[in-house]
Design a protein that fits this description.
By secondary structure, the protein is an alpha/beta fold. The protein is about 45% helix and about 15% strand.
């Protein structure tokens, strides 16, 4: 597949994943003839949710290899893709209590609604904006890192798996002539995930009727006309999962599919300062590598969708700015304030005003 070749070209290697033990050793190991230790001092589990050939998994393995080499074999990190260690909520809990050491997973809002702030619709709509809003030194980066620390979690940073759009089977009424008109009452029924913010983004901001359907039932629901389309995946997700079903893709970028790169805080704090620096640098490089790979993948996915005859519609900069402005005024200013508080929304507005 083209997406796989794009990823391989970007990373310049094919990695082989391991699934070994996940407990920390107490005493330093001995070195082999190449300078690497036969028995690492530390052995960590790194939990992910992507498949073995996805961007996030390849990036995780690259980072693990780099850390092993730079610590002369003292830190061995085993990567577990495809939710092998449990779903992301379970993994987050286990990282909190230390039974799993590390993860690159979606953020959890189980304990506090602020945990779900990365999903706020129209917080950013492209990778440059993502780097600005979520990057080191931003208000959200600092605030979220402090928030995570309160639950015993060290946050290295954020990655995104893309931006969600509308994959549509049938376009109803005259919707094809008013795709990005937020004042037009569309007739095309869009499935939304079980997130109130996504329902508001579709129904009240984009003015499309919406219905909540479990993801497991989505494909058949679209086949049988229970709904006409879905939101929840970007260009690549629509190409890899829905390409044989959909006829249209609207690159609306309603929200970012953000991930957090995290580690048990007590464990991280207990590491020698040199190893903390090595791990932090490796995780930052991993995130940037994966963002670059995502850009290649998304561009390829748009082309692949078009080659299959699927009509792809991309808002102009002016149309996207108008949509973002409406979301900030009507979604952030009401539901956002009620959920996260006025102070949080004011800080985020200050971050994103430059995009409008």
């Amino acid at each position: 597949m083209k997406k796989f070749f794009s990823i391989c070209m970007l990373f310049a290697l094919v990695v082989s994943l391991t699934a070994c033990g996940d407990t920390a050793e107490e005493s330093p190991g001995t070195s082999d003839s190449g300078g690497m230790k036969d028995t690492p001092t530390y052995t960590f589990s790194f939990a992910g949710i992507g498949g073995t050939e996805t961007i996030d998994t390849i990036a995780m393995q690259n980072a693990a290899d780099k850390i092993y080499e730079q610590t002369n074999g003292d830190i061995k990190i085993n990567v577990f893709p495809a939710s092998q260690l449990g779903d992301y909520i379970q993994v987050y809990d286990e990282i909190m209590n230390g039974s799993i050491e590390m993860g690159l997973i979606p953020p959890a809002d189980t304990y506090d609604s602020f945990g779900g702030i990365p999903y706020l619709p129209y917080l950013c709509t492209n990778l440059d904006q993502f780097r600005t809003v979520f990057g080191e030194g931003s208000w959200l980066y600092d605030e979220y890192k402090e928030f995570q620390a309160g639950y015993g979690v060290h946050n290295f940073g954020f990655w995104t798996n893309g931006f969600t759009g509308f994959g549509i089977v049938d376009m109803k009424g005259d919707d094809i002539d008013h795709l990005f008109d937020t004042e037009y009452a569309h007739q095309t029924m869009i499935r939304v995930p079980g997130l109130e913010s996504q329902k508001i983004a579709v129904s009240e901001i984009m003015n499309y009727p919406s219905t909540t359907i479990p993801y497991a039932d989505l494909y058949s629901a679209m086949q049988t006309g229970v709904c006409d389309g879905w939101v929840g995946g970007g260009a690549y997700s629509n190409y890899s999962v829905m390409a044989d079903l959909i006829n249209y893709f609207l690159d609306l970028r309603t929200s970012t599919d953000a991930y957090v790169c995290i580690m048990n805080k007590d464990l991280f704090d207990s590491l020698p300062a040199e190893y903390q620096t090595i791990m932090t640098n490796a995780m930052n490089e991993m995130i940037e590598e994966a963002l670059g790979a995502l850009e290649v993948q998304d561009e390829q996915a748009i082309s692949d969708l078009q080659e299959l005859g699927i009509e792809v519609y991309i808002p102009t900069d002016e149309e996207m700015a108008a949509i973002m402005s409406k979301a900030i005024d009507q979604l952030w200013g009401t539901w956002g304030v009620e959920t996260y508080g006025q102070d949080v929304i004011d800080h985020l507005k200050a971050e994103v005003e430059q995009f409008l």
